[in-house]
Amino acid sequence: MNKKVMAILVPVVSVLIALAISTVIILLIGKNPIDAYGALIKGSFGSKQAIADTVIKTTPLILTGLAVGFGFRAGVFNIGAEGQMVMGALIAATFASNFGSLPPLLAIPLTILIAMSVGAGYAAIAGFLKAKTGAHEVVTTIMLNWIATYFASYMVTGPLKVGSGTPKSPEISDSCQLPVLMKVGAIEMSAGIIIAIIAAIFMYILLNKTTTGYEVKAVGFNPYAAEYGGISVGKNIVLAMAISGALAGLAGATELMGVHHRFLGELSGGKGFDGISIALIGQNNPIGIIFAAFLIGALRTGSNEMQFIGVPKHMVMIIQGIVIFLVAADRIVRTIMIRKRVEK
Amino acid sequence: MYAVEMVNIVKRFPGVLANDHVTVRVKKGEIHAIVGENGAGKSTLMNQLYGLYHPDEGEIFINGEKVVIRGPKDAIKLGIGMVHQHFMLVDTLTVAENVVLGSEPVKGLNFDMKKARQEVKELSEKYGLFVDVDAKIEDIPVGMQQRVEIIKTLYRGANIIILDEPTAVLTPQEVEELFEIMRKLKNDGKTILFISHKLHEVMEISNRITVMRLGKVTGELETSKTNPKEIARHMVGRDVVLRVSKEPHEPKDVIFEIKDLVVKDNRGLTAVNDVSFNVRKGEIVGIAGVAGNGQTELVEAITGLRKIESGHIYFEGKEVAGFTPRQLRELGMSHIPEDRLKHGLIEEFEAYYNIILGQHYRNPFANGAFLNHNNIFKYSEDLMEEFDVRPRKIDHLGGNFSGGNQQKLVVGREIRTNPKFLVVAQPTRGLDVGAIEFIHKQILKMRSLDVGILLISMELEEIFSLSDRILVMYEGEIMGEVKPEETTIEEVGLMMTGHRIEEARRG
After folding, report:
1. At A199, is the secondary structure helix, strand, or coil?
2. Which of A40, A248, B124, B417 is the most buried (most CB within 10 A)?
3. In Å, how far is B401's CA from the nearest CA of chain A?
């Protein structure tokens, strides 16, 4: 079957199977699945507020999904999106609380640039270690995640701490906050979603239309052939990690500038790790990643509404888990099929 | 009375007939050499005797009795021991511990170290296998590690000992010591199977010789009644058919030269040892040799894929040692690599992306940072047409073409860059006759356009039919230079097995 058709079919069928299995589970706990799914949809798209909420939840997931997905396309497994997001947001927050004198037109890009550069630099450490010593990026990015987490928690409970209660940094200057696209009650939907979509377009162009994309993909697929073709393997591993990290840093920036307006203890809340599942469901394709992020974002937003009618919100975890399992299983099946073909 | 009889053994691997009705008979108490080029099927055959592989067809008899050997355990029970090319020792344990590992003497529930040491000592003294039983493996030299492997087989009661290329890792002195040990073992009634492709060693130590080539037995010889020339002929095959006609062509200036080049392999051992030669424009210089004699490292060093230890590389008179592959390509060097799946192609890339590899960042394929897909597609269609790559689909993935078409793609890509100097390694490995002829013609066409060509091949036929000059490489050194019309296949065969040109001429 055509590769492109498969790339769309696999996640869609996986979602359908996941819904079918969850239907059985909802029936088993004695609830009406139609009511449950109705509540889920109502909770995520049923009102202006619900839609805004879904978009807010989706934005960082698109960006971390792109970060991990870009890494996969370039042959690196960046598990460190979490740490890169935290570091990007933390450092940007530190600067951005002092940008009051700058106009938004300068302050916003500058804050974004800081977060992306920090994310890129932090990821590049793992890239550099891999290129120079062969240290696997899975191991080093996990280690860097812990460093980032504890460093951030030290900063907001120590040097940067303001107020009492939840550890947090000072609020960033007004001029650094992203413009609000839609305001429903207390919920402000910022322009972060536009940034995320621009990032997806950027990744598509970079991967498919540029020599840089050609080189990072070549190194990811076959480093020997890439080197033979005059492509520097080490340079491109560092570059791939840095671009991946910049996207994760951007996720930190949108959360900081569009949602919390300060660095909070749980700013990332595992969204860097969610990026791995989203990249997987989205088949590392920028458009696919947008859809996958919306799916997960909507499920999470709608789950509260579902809880109200007595279906545990953890149902969405089940759906999410089954989707990931099936998409991953498809890879396993395909790998086995390719092996078999080779053996013949 | 035969100690070992392997009759009509057939062993297939995917796409390869590794052993094609091979029959070997080994007399009790003899040293029997199995000789052949790398890839001739020697190790495959021995691994079946030791139970690591199972023959698809054929029978094995040990001491006249038909046996089925399911694994090394069965082999050991039958008194067969094997010393592999790569030793199977635990570095952090002592010699004695390694020898008894797996069948340790015990006292009650405890390992009886004293007894183990005693037994190992006795065995080593009996056969002159001098080892320090208490030394750790990591602290002793390779030659001694090999003796530990031999003691291991003896400890398990082996009467038939297989030595798989035992001299490959040894110094000349260690080789002499090994031969001394082999003689002692033989005098004690042990049967030894000795795998090698070094003819002088085989002549020195063996009683009888089985020669293999491309999975078949090509000769069974008594060592005392043969000579290296005859063995070499069996090893490399006798017929050279010139399939493509080569026009005479006068070579021009030197385009490429290397001087005193030393290159190490991945293990840090010297793979290319003090090699010097040059290539002129419009000339094909062939490098012949059994695989694994430094050709791969030589090519990688020349093309910028491996760093050199010392020496010089000149391109058009300019020093280019240490240049990156991209710099070399920009100067006008092209490279058809020996392993098209490792270096030559990106299997996951479409044909058109494979076709621009190496030039992907340059006009007309890229304008600044962006790829120009229109030009890429157009160029790819032309190239696939010119080099008859099938199917003629530019968006077909590299890995989905057949081997011959993959090779055409690579050859086409490298030739279409209009190089001044072309490095061609094993260009026709695994291809059918039609594709071979096509590629040979392309290489000769480049010669007529005054491109300097360095051809590395294990196929003597190819070397003889294409080269203007032939250099023979053995253990990283050039054994001599000959012209194809002034030499014979025997002479080159002898040089390939370690005889310098003067010796080879003497016969």
Report:
1. helix
2. A248
3. 13
Structure tokens at A242: 């840095």
The CA distance from B312 to B276, in Å, is: 9
- Cα separation, B422 vs B413, in Å, equals 12
A226 touches chain B (CB under 8 A): yes
One-character DSSP codes across B388-415 = T-SS--TTSBGGGS-HHHHHHHHHHHHH
Topology of the domain covering B2-236: Rossmann fold (3.40.50)
Task: Answer for the pair A265, A93: CB distance below 8 angstroms, yes or no.
Answer: no
Distances from the Cα of B162 to the Cα of B122, B194, B222, angstroms: 22, 6, 19
In B, residues 11-50, which contact A (CB 8 Å cutoff)? 14
In angstroms, the separation between the Cα of residue A291 and the nearest Cα of chain B is 25
Query: DSSP states of B149-168 as a string?
Result: HHHHHHHTT-SEEEEESTTT
Architecture of domain A60-304: Orthogonal Bundle (1.10)
User: Cα dist. A278→A63, A103, A137, B171, B201 in Å?
Assistant: 10, 35, 19, 57, 62
* Contact residues on chain B for A227, CB-CB shorter than 8 A: 305, 325, 343
Domain ranges of chain B: 2-236, 239-332+420-507, 341-418
Gyration radius from chain B CA atoms: 26
Instruction: Give Cα B504 to chain centroid, integer Å.
Output: 22
Question: For chain B, how far is it from start to end, CA to CA, in angstroms?
Answer: 35
Are A7 and A283 in contact by the 8 Å Cβ rule? The answer is yes
Checking A108-113 for CB contacts under 8 A at 24+ apart, the result is A108/A175, A108/A176, A108/A178, A108/A257, A111/A172, A111/A176, A111/A253, A111/A256, A111/A257, A112/A195, A112/A250, A112/A253, A112/A257
Closest by CA position to B446, among listed B410, B404, B406, B417: B417
CB neighbours (10 Å) of residue A265? 15
Place of tokens 């082996």: B158
Average pLDDT per 10 consecutive residues for chain B, totaling 507 residues:
93 82 94 84 91 93 94 93 87 90 79 86 86 87 87 92 85 82 92 87 93 89 89 71 72 94 88 95 93 90 95 96 95 93 92 95 93 96 92 89 87 94 88 78 93 90 91 93 88 85 79
- Interface contact A230-B335, CB threshold 8 A: no
| Residue B13 · residue A342 · CB < 8 Å | no
Tokens 């303001």 map to which residue? A162
Q: How many CB atoms lie within 10 A of CB A205?
A: 13
CA distance A104 to B463: 72
Which CATH superfamily, name and number, covers B239-332+420-507?
Answer: P-loop containing nucleotide triphosphate hydrolases (3.40.50.300)
| Cβ–Cβ below 8 Å for A232 and B324 | yes
CB within 8 Å: B358 and A228: yes
